[in-house]
Amino acid sequence: MSKPPFLTLPSGARAHRLVTARGAFAVHTCGRPRLGTALLLPGFTGSKEDFVALLGPLADAGFRVVAVDGRGQYETEGPADEAAYRLPELARDVLAQAEALDAGGVHLLGHSLGGLVARAAVLRDASPFRSLTLLSSGPAATSPLQQERVRLLQDALRTLGMAEVWERMRALDPPEAAGAGTPREVTAFLRERWMATAPAQLIATGDILLGEPDRVPELAAVPLPRHVVTGALDYAWPVPLLADMARRLSAPHTVIEGAEHSPNAERPRETAAALAAFWTDVNP
């Protein structure tokens, strides 16, 4: 999961609910849309806080930035029915969010699982969007090793409570993941976020990571500017695979040095600079 470097919102940002035709979603909003509006979708086990370090730099660059908790993620409520979290439903949520922002075109970004959701939204209806950025998100199902981890997590969630699953996951963490250098409030937040996430959401979106087909040819046919951003290493989708996806999409591929699967949290200023440059370049 992404681990935000801090939790304090930058000056001018606010936490609120974005009311849409498909319900209200918890969001963090920052900045004025001088150059446009960006909608940021988090990944598997993630939340809007994964983008907290991007908000200030992107707002300073001239963008209104809206980071969202999808349905069943952290502070957005969701039902216990797994069918509510299938990819078509999540795509419809994104389209409703873009409509509610009333921005005249939104720069859409999805991190990891969020990239698959963003892609599904664009393939359903690209008209609300100015561009699509896939951040550490691949062409199809995730890597075999990550698939194994997802299946183990799904099995645990079907038989155990969220608290027990959390404790077991932490017990399996390598020593370097124990939290050295992590602010205490961030460590507490990670557990709080986990406990607030709907188990059905995790199980159903895990199925997306396990079974999503390669839809790159479909996406390549959509007349929308695209951008692939990755770290220098990635455990979920190998970087050479992501580079090949960018080539197939005729999209620029930006590598954030010193980052792995979460450049948004690991190298936020460099990531924000790359995003702002792309969005500025493709603005009408």
TrEMBL record:
GO terms for cellular component: membrane. GO terms for molecular function: hydrolase activity. It comes from the Bacteria. Keywords: Hydrolase. Residues 39-274 form the AB hydrolase-1 domain. It holds the Pfam family Abhydrolase_6. This is Alpha/beta fold hydrolase.
